Amino acid sequence: MNYKAAGGTNQDRLIISSADAEHDRYLVEQSFEYDLLLTEEDMKKRFGKYGWGQDED
Length: 57
Known about the structure:
By secondary structure, this protein is α+β, with helices and mostly antiparallel strands. It is built from two helices and two strands; from the N terminus they run E-E-H-H. The chain has helices at 18-33, 40-47, and strands at 2-5, 12-15. The mean pLDDT is 77.
């Protein structure tokens, strides 16, 4: 992976190869194939220590 300056700003954008993009697409599509969707409660249990669900009233 390479980083490239974005037009004179202090922001960078990630430049990835087409093979990297294809691999990422495969991983995303594979996750839907197995129907691995989590409920809001599941997300709180798994990611609560990272702040998931802590912004709720």
